[in-house]
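Researcher: Let's continue the batch. This sequence belongs to NADP-dependent oxidoreductase, and it's 296 residues. Same format as the previous ones, please.
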Amino acid sequence: MRAAVVRSFGGPEVVDVVERGVPEPAARQVRIKVAAAALNPVDAGVRSGVFGGAGKEIGLGWDVAGTVDAVGVAAAWSVGDKVVALAYGVDKPLGTHAEYVVVDTGAVAAAPATADAVHAATLPLNALTAAQALDLLDLAPGASLLVTGAAGAVGGYAVQLAARRGLTVTGLARADDEEFVRSLGASGFVSGEAAAGAYDGVLDTAVLGEPALVWARDGGAYAGVIPQAEPASVRGVRTTAVEVSADGARLAELVRLADDGVLSLRVAEVFSLADAAKAHSRLGEGGVRGRLVLVP
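Model: Same format as before. Here are the structure tokens for NADP-dependent oxidoreductase:
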């Protein structure tokens, strides 16, 4: 099969599509024939060496939508099932940017019934990150939340999920994204500087870091999306950062919300697997609304 890997760190030019053996599922694993796989900023981080792994061949890709085509013992899924999954890991030998991928059964959920594979592939990593970050903030219904990067993939899901939890959501994004961010459920919108100390919580999907703390009230909460990179606490603000985990049961809940129209699955552009390097280049240009998706 073909798979996108990196063997040295750098720009999009280091992404190589190579021939590798088709992986076999072990006990409590399934093999998925990939129909679509999203490209995320974490893939660019892996490619550029942010997470280490020098000297290894590293497979790219975390999100997958496709069809189960082989199962291990006690796999709990059947050949032919349409599924989505999260293949967690920054230094795995094969990722989802491939024709086949093996994942643990606990990472898998049935695919959305109302979306094609390309759109479904945008859900696992970004929606799980948003949901798990909101869990860390642990805000009660009625509390105020500022979501930075509210028009982005994680930020957009965060706005929708937070509004569904009964939070009063303000989105921080570029001025021309206001209509879109409000359509996701934000009752407030800010472009530029938000009011200091105005929010019970800040979900910093734009990775602003310490400057975003000023917008949380004294004793409030801040959650970032870069593991173990949250800023130090000030004014009693509780600071944390989400490290997304593969959770098939939670992913199934998010799939149901997508099927119910609560979550919007956004695709910016589709690339063939052979053009993985071009997709990385496009991601690096910025200004992407929705996800870039690779199809074998």
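Researcher: Any comment?
Model: The radius of gyration is 19 Å.
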